[in-house]
Design a protein that fits this description.
Distance between the termini: 43 Å
Structural class: alpha/beta
Strand content: 15-25%
Number of helices: 7
Radius of gyration: 18 Å
Length: 210
Amino acid sequence: MKKLLLLAFVLLNVGFASAENTMADLFNGKTKLVFLGLDFTQAKYVGRIGFTDPAAIQNQHMVSWNNLIEMEPKKFSLQKAFNLKDDQYASKVEDMVKFNKAANVADNITETEATLTEDQVKKSVSKYSLSEKDGIGLVYVVESLSKTAEKMTVWATFIDLSTKKVLYTEKVEGKASGFGFRNYWAGSVYKINQEIDSKLYKKWSKSYKV
């Protein structure tokens, strides 16, 4: 009986191991990509003159910036950037919208440029409660929105959705542009996506594609 239980345990763990995803799987078309949106829980807002209504940022704009990813797929989808078929790509920002409720905008408005470390990124990811369990997730862990430098800086972070393990993370910047507060910073997200499409995908695929 003990041997049978041991065998069942081993087989179960082999099953879990085989379900894990790698960056190579993504670039070889063997798994899907889920764009999870933006995590603002560690973000700094640089240049007080540009962030005069922290309540609106927290209660309105964070939700809007994430929802645009699903509401305007022609502009914010990463499917083309990663050369993925329709059944290999999805966007689901609901989990980040919920997670961002723990953010504190007012206390993170500053005049000093700020940085995150990879360990801080991983710590944030470890707290996620993700409804998606299959494939690889991509989240932008926001480091800063800098009115001074007119840019948003994020850590583009790839997560194995079956384990929440961070597979890879890299800092990416996007120039802010657009009319109105929401669109100005949404323009940064668009530029970050363009940077992935025009430069980073090629670099990443060379590193991971077999």
